[in-house]
Specification:
Structural class: alpha/beta
Largest sheet: 6 strands, parallel
Mean pLDDT: 86
Length: 219
């Protein structure tokens, strides 16, 4: 029997937690394997249940942001998605820097949440579009200028992919536009993130934005 994507929900509001659990349970392909309400419980869940994706709130006992490095220290491959009401730039930046693979706001619908979980489970990152827009328009601190110079060292194809990522396209959309296999686009993104020394697509797009600020790029 095939199992779905195994999800853990960690939030200190039982009613909200139960609502997320119920919503995901009603969608094919998901199994909620554990629930918790604190940093310590999140760490224990990562160790004991090894979920594919953990949904983690910021405002809870012990702190959600503090939980990220602790979780990854005991379960390095754990994929974490922040599901919170906080739109603070510092929280978004801190979560991504610590290793979260996604950042969502609690107003998201059940089907959209399911889509994001699938995206993260497949190995990609995701940031809510409104928050990603803030990052890309410079409301967070700019990357170091030295890192922006690395964009010039990307291959022509990698730069092309990175520009499309910065425009908001998914790997699937990029593959269609460039007439490539989606697996090839994922490979390019892996190479791009390694060369730019960034952890996710949003950070890569920020480096590109900074590079465009520092020097013109011919299209």
């Amino acid at each position: 029997m095939m199992t779905g994507i195994r999800v853990a929900v960690v939030d200190d509001h039982p009613l909200f937690r139960e609502g997320v659990t119920r919503s995901l349970s009603e969608i094919d392909g998901f199994e909620v394997v554990a629930e918790g309400g604190s940093r310590d419980e999140a760490i224990a869940i990562a160790q004991s249940f090894n979920p594919d994706v953990m949904l983690l709130d910021i405002s809870m006992p012990g702190g959600g942001l503090n939980a990220i490095p602790a979780i990854l220290s005991v379960a390095p491959s754990q994929k974490i998605v922040m599901l919170t009401v906080s739109e603070a730039n510092d929280d978004v930046a801190a979560a991504l820097k610590e290793g979260a693979k996604g950042y969502l706001l609690k107003g998201i619908g059940a089907r959209a949440l399911a889509d994001v979980i699938r995206t993260v489970a497949s190995g990609e990152s995701y940031v809510a579009p409104t928050l990603s827009a803030k990052l890309l328009t410079g409301q967070l601190a700019n990357p170091a200028p030295a890192k922006s110079n690395l964009v010039a060292e990307l291959t022509r194809r990698e730069q092309e992919v990175l520009h499309l990522v910065a425009s908001g396209m998914s790997n699937k959309q990029i593959a269609r536009k460039l007439d490539l296999h989606e697996k090839t686009v994922k490979h390019h993104m892996t190479q791009i993130m390694a060369k730019l020394d960034v952890a996710n697509r949003t950070e890569a797009a920020m480096v590109l934005r900074d590079a465009l600020d520092w020097r013109p790029v011919s299209q």
